[in-house]
Amino acid sequence: MTGGFVVEGGRRLCGDVTVKGAKNAVLPLLAAALMAEDEVVLEGCPRLMDVENMAGILRGLGCRVRRQGDCLTVDPRSADCFEMPERLSGELRSSIFLLGPILGRFGQAVCSYPGGCEIGLRPIDLHLSGLRALNASIEEAHGRINCLPSVLIGAPIHLDYPSVGATENIMMAAAKARGVTTITNPAKEPEIADLQDFLNAMGARVSGAGSDHITIEGVKRLGGTVYRPITDRIAAGTYLAAAAMTAGDVTVKNIQPRHIAAITAKLTETGCRLDSTETSVRLRAPARLRAPQRLETLPYPGFPTDMQAQMFALACIAKGTTIIQENVFESRYRHAAELTRMGADVTIRDRLAIITGVDELTGAEVQAGDLRGGAALVLAGLVAQGTTTVQGAGYIDRGYERLEEVLGSLGANIRKF
Ligand code: UD1
Questions:
Q1: Quick check: 196 and 206 in contact, CB under 8 A?
Q2: Pocket residues: Cβ below 6 A from ligand 1
Q3: Which residue of 104, 204, 333, 402 has the fewest C-beta atoms within 10 A of its own C-beta?
Q4: What is d(CA 135, CA 157) in angstroms, rounded to the nearest whole number?
Q5: Domain 23-227: top CATH class
Q6: Nearest residue CA, atom 22 of ligand 1?
Q7: CA 65 – CA 87 distance, rounded (Å)
Q8: Cα(373)–Cα(312) distance, rounded to whole angstroms?
Q9: Is 134 helix (H, G, I), strand (E, B) or coil?
Q10: Is residue 323 classed as helix, strand or coil in its secondary structure?
Q11: Strand, coil or helix: what is 221?
Q12: pTM assigned to the model
């Protein structure tokens, strides 16, 4: 990944930031749009590499996709290909979301194993077993996944683990399957309820998202719609963590505070004052943060793994010791070694990280290894003494639209190269 960010530490972040559509909501919605028999318009879509890659894959399948400002319009009527373009799907973990919609649309599919951030093994067994339960006939050979022509039939599906992507894939395929599908132990992330609302806006019959039991009654036809996805709870959390670390006073707007309750609860533990309205959260930070004692990542509504790295960076400069337990992905501490280069006191033991806050971090040249870990290094740079260069902007661009402009507007001294 080329390019990076140069951050001069020591500025307090103050002001307002308006959060845009969530990457993790937009990606499955774009995939689901393939099944519509008319145009789908998604409003408030961020300009992110992952979103552009998903649009590129849809084009590869024959859809017409155009962007006007923050609006993405997908016209799937011209789609004529059930084989995912190999190069783009190799770059995007979420390309696997397209398997369900391609099957729903064409009754057959070919794709390669998905790529994405290197944060663990990230198998797709739950996706494949869920689709097989819906009568898909799937062969895996030579790095390719072949779904042979088959008619999808609704079925009861129990997920061993509440995988976000597998829940979404099954919901999408089941929306056009014959009969009724139930998913027990599904993921409950807000993006799941958003997908339900979107599918229903297209004419699907889905209920129960957000609870322990989702029911999907298959329909013959899905139509077009105009839809505004939920906004990005992880981007919101990242800006709040940045405000907390810099003794700042920042209001994140255009969010649903209940979506970030686990994050705001942790930030409150650090001594920050948080005030919410229906659509915003304001954070006012003390001069020195208290270390959150324990932070364990869990499926929603637990603490999100996608905020672990940012809170890790925060713990590096808080007073006291924090123990982090990463339960969702098995290797998501690539940022630890880089933060150590900046003076952090960190010990990693398997899934546990023990962090003792130091008085000050020092600027260094560090390397982003994944999206959220990269963001964590930028946050550390905001408070480090001197200059921090974070290499690997490409990782960060996957999930943050113009991070340097957002942080710059809050008073940070940051530039991209
Ligand atoms: C989604 C999010 C990602 C977030 C993650 C967990 C999107 C585009 N990405 O990823 O940002 O970090 O949820 O909140 O929405 N697993 C299996 N087999 C499977 C599928 C998953 O073992 O078939 C395991 C994974 O390896 C991982 C855990 O389940 O350890 C969680 O993965 P999952 O919930 O599927 O995450 P994603 O949908 O990939």
A1: yes
A2: 24, 27, 93-94, 120-127, 161, 163-166, 187, 191, 304-306, 328-329
A3: 402
A4: 12
A5: alpha beta
A6: 123
A7: 18
A8: 9
A9: coil
A10: strand
A11: coil
A12: 0.96
Determine which residue's CA is closest to atom 5 belonging to ligand 1: 164
Residue type for 100, please? G
| Residue extents of the structural domains in the chain | 4-19+231-416, 23-227
List the chain pLDDT tens, one digit each, 417 residues.
679 999 999 999 999 999 999 999 999 999 999 999 999 999 999 999 899 999 999 999 999 999 999 999 999 999 999 998 887 877 788 888 899 999 999 999 998 877 654 555 568 899 999 999 999 999 988 878 899 989 999 999 999 999 999 999 999 999 999 999 999 999 999 999 999 999 999 999 999 999 999 999 999 999 999 999 999 999 999 999 999 999 999 999 999 999 999 999 999 999 999 999 999 999 999 999 999 999 999 999 999 999 999 999 999 999 999 999 999 998 799 999 999 999 999 999 999 999 999 999 999 999 999 999 999 999 999 999 999 999 999 999 999 999 999 999 999 999 999
Please, which residues have CB within 8 angstroms of residue 236's CB and are 6 or more apart in sequence? 19, 252, 255, 260, 263, 281
- Other Cβ atoms less than 10 A from the Cβ of 213: the count is 12
Q: Is 4-19+231-416's fold the same as 23-227's?
A: yes
Is 117 an annotated catalytic residue? yes
